[in-house]
Amino acid sequence: MAAVAIGAYFIFHVLTPWAYEFGPVLLLLLTFLSLGFQWKQVGQLVDGESLCFLGALGFYFISQVLILIVHGEDISEFDLSFRYLAAGLVLLFLLVNPISAAQIFLFVGVGGLFTGAYSIYLAAFQDAGRVQSFDNPIHFGNGALALSCLCLAGLAWAVSERRGVLWTGLLGVGFAGGLIASLLSGTRSSWVAFPVLVLLVFLAYRDRLLSKKWLLPSFFVAVVLLPVSLASVDLVEQRIQAAAKEFTAYFEEGVNYSSVGTRLDMYKAGLTAFRKNPLIGVGPAGTDAVVGELVQAGEIHSNVGLFRHLHNQYIDNMARYGLVGLVAYLALLIVPFVLFMKKTRSGTPSVKSLGLGGALFVSLHGVANLTQSLLERNVGVMMFVFAMVFIWAVLKREERLANGATAPVMSKA
């Protein structure tokens, strides 16, 4: 059942509105049904690293809840916060009842394949401008690139497997499918992460790249050719040029009704709200009030008032939750990132690949949130926090097996 839940989550990651909720909800139900009988195993399997992971989730949950209570926010504002608590509980369940690396790489490979095929169909036969599915192109593009990153990370594991050719083919197609879908979505926020993602791949495999004379030049040729190839795609070129023009127009001509201009006005509003209460912010309602005041004063465009968030998670957290909220969000990024990057030094292919996949995933999210507030929407929280939890649980399972465990932990339950 855990495999069904995680499989549905990744295979239909950006294609259907139920997939990102069905998997976590099913796992949370299994958690409530089973953890009462498995606390002994939980105590044995939650090591110091997993405690740090759980601590980052718990800190974000507790800090948000307490600040929302202080600000007297409506009960509906607590909904997103409790999802971090749910993710922590699901992680405990999955540490005891894990799926394998082969299963998760199968799911992301098929997910990337389906996502790429869907986006090509829409672009070729439906004459779609910016490809999307049930939500807006931004979530579609970010989710598609996340699948692509996980497939890319899995390729090094694939070549070490008995059916290496088949695994490499699947993950290669999944990588290409996710990348194509991201490009056809026109999602600029995730494209900015490309240099960071390339650097992480280099750091993870620098020993291998430096040990063979032909690998390092090949790697840098690929790094150079990728942005050149991407820039030649009409939609990519148009979106990049439009962003540059809108940015210039905002500062030189005061044009604040464009996509970039509206975002810059949002950042102005968020920083204004932050200055009112730097420690714990002004809360969601207080942020909305500040936006309303600035719109009425003519200091920002009225379009800003139409959005529920400020399109920058860092500024959003500062406005709503102050420095406490910003630190909590940075911990939510940095702690898992450090833990995942540590695993890229592992000598076990599955652990190394999952570590790289997790680090790429977290980095992509952190960069994309410079122009998005993905954690201010249900879909954004579910697509981020549970993916991290799934990857970490599988990684710890593979690490235990590599360290001498001879049977699946679930057989002891």
Automatic annotation (TrEMBL):
Q: Describe the location of the O-antigen ligase-related domain by residue ranges.
A: 176-330
Query: Where do the TM regions start and end?
Result: 18-39, 51-70, 82-99, 104-125, 137-158, 165-184, 190-207, 214-233, 321-341, 353-371, 377-395
> Which InterPro entries does this one have?
O-antigen_ligase-rel_domated, WaaL-like
GO molecular-function terms, A-Z = ligase activity
Asked if the keyword Transit peptide belongs to this entry, the reply reads no
Give the UniProt subcellular location, in the record's own words: Membrane
Keywords for the protein's UniProt record, in alphabetical order: Ligase, Membrane, Transmembrane, Transmembrane helix
> What is this protein called in UniProt?
O-antigen ligase family protein
